[in-house]
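User: My instructor asked us to take a sequence, write out its structure as tokens, and then describe one feature of it. I'm not sure where to start. Here is the sequence I was given:
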Amino acid sequence: MKAATLSVVVGALILVSTAAQAQPPDHPPPPRYRVIFNCDGFGGGGNGSVADYVQRVFGPIENSDVDALFWCDGAGGNTALYDSDVLELNGARIGKVRPGLLQWIKEGNDPPKVVVREAKKRGLPIFYSFRLNDTHDFFLEEELPTFKIEHPEWTIGNMDPNYPYHPVYPYTSLDFSVPQVRWLKYRVVKEIFRKYDFDGIEIDFMRSPPHFKPGTEPSNAHILTEFLRRIRWYLNKKEQQRGRPIYLAARVDENLEACRLDGFEVKTWMKEGLIDILSLGSGTIDIEVEKFKQLAEGTNVRIYPCLYGWPSRYNPIPAEMVRGLALNYWNQGADGLYLFNWYSYSSRYQIPLLSEIGNPEDLLAKPLMFAVDRGQPQTAYPHNWLQAVLPVELDRGELVRMPIRVGTDLTASPWDQALLRVDLRVECENLLDSDKLQVTFNGKTLSGEERDGGVIMVRVAPEQIKVGENEVVLHLVSRQVGAEPPVTVKGVEMLVDYP
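Assistant: Let's start with the prediction itself. The structure tokens for your sequence are:
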């Protein structure tokens, strides 16, 4: 035990002191993937047959716009659902390792080997998606590793329920200012490329912030940058050995301010050539694609906004919203789209969408939905939804302004103006029939509303809608005297269709 502890400490010191090294001169830019599919929620092997597993992972994305697969083993990065020498197997601490997983490994079907083999058969680039600080182990007992029990000082909350960002969850977050934590995670990366032939790796920083004690993230940002430098240094060595590029991807917040608050020095990562691909967001609607693209100018970094499976609590995401968000992101100059929490194997309606969203022209003249972002910072996402307006309470006489982005020109071909209908839908809680809510769109007050309880529908002329950001203004003109509780706006959506 003492020798093992000494090894960890020495390794941690080496990790801290390693000099930075960017990509080698002959490292080519990454291909432009139309759609990256993150197989995040159903990647764990050992349940059912290998053939069924392969069909579950690859079946929905066959003959689609998906050009790259980011595969997560399904355990969360603290335990393993593969044959690991670094992490204990999922469930090992409580004696509940999947018997099927052990059998697969014994038969030579270690899950990473299976997915790499099957991806290469299909000519599909495959990355290992590494959840850097996943905290599902707070409530999934089989994912809580022994090292967090033995070393509570490695966690941000020291396993203390009185966690600063939230009273309970996620006090199992690891503290990356602790060298042993970084050394452990680095060893996972090394093992992945020592044992498996992945084309790249994604460091998923959005599973989950925070990575340092609350309030210290910006001052500790250099630590995560140094961590990426070490990974890039190692990948450079493996790249030279293999004689082909190995790409490094990272997933971060949806806007630059949230990245700063979470300790992600994105500009430095790009400038130093540490990363090849940057994916943006985790559950939000509005993403600062254009600002990240500007930051990436002069580099080979490609930008991929995350089209989440249930953004801003639209669960499941409507097909119309999938199309609308895809158009918005393409319109902002995205290099491609990144899908997360898409369960296409069970949500069958999503499968045809995988053959639409990779080309903006395939999305036109179809039902669309655009929405105002809604949500609030959450337990494992303390700086997400910083710019979301909704939900919002309306006081009588108050004006509330909110942006809504539209990524296509509804007055141009192939839209048929004679048939096209565009409605603005405002969903309110506690709105009474006698209350008057005025809706203004791009400076023009809309009239002819239809009401159904707390839902207001009002028509918008296509020529009134701008490509890009539009403004909705809500004004609670009058409110029934003594009415309680206050009116709360829960959703604002634009519906585009041929009724």
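For the description part of your assignment, you could build on this observation: The chain has two domains: 2-366, 392-497. Try explaining in your own words what that tells you about the chain.
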